[in-house]
């Protein structure tokens, strides 16, 4: 890793933070969006353009992603679930925000007997673990499916 001691930097007059010149986005500060030349005009325009719903959308998706990622679900499955939920714009379809994701078994899951959700047989080895539920409630159901089903 190289040191950034000799890199060109300046203090942004909008947010008063140190900004490296190679990190500027379109000549604007990446933190507050102000240009380094015309501060007052550009900062006011940028602040008016922010929509608080975008921030809420981003935070909502981050915490859902974090929740399912901690369970061990595939990032592709999580993003696919979030995309499907975003595509449904109707009020009626938003009422049913159900999901079902395959997650890896933990060490304790390998040791205890499990009952198959499809054929209701007991099994110890193999199978898959599924987490299902509704995004509106914090509770999740854990189901196991044996190799034969």
Which tags fit this structure?
149 residues; 3-stranded antiparallel sheet; two-stranded antiparallel ribbon
How would you concisely characterize the structure shown here?
With 149 residues, the chain is an alpha+beta fold. It is 36% helix and 19% strand.
Layout of helices and strands:
Elements: E1 9-11, E2 18-20, H1 39-49, H2 52-71, H3 75-87, H4 91-95, E3 98-103, H5 107-111, E4 114-115, E5 122-123, E6 128-134, E7 140-145
Model description:
The chain is of the alpha+beta class. The protein has two domains: 9-49, no CATH class; 52-145, no CATH class. The chain contains five helices and seven strands. The protein has helices at residues 39-49, 52-71, 75-87, 91-95, 107-111; strands spanning 9-11, 18-20, 98-103, 114-115, 122-123, 128-134, 140-145. Strands 3-6-7 form a three-stranded antiparallel beta sheet. Strands 1-2 form a two-stranded antiparallel sheet. It has a two-stranded antiparallel sheet with strand order 4-5. β4 and β5 form a beta hairpin. The longest helix has 20 residues, at 52-71. The model is unreliable at 38-50 (pLDDT under 50).
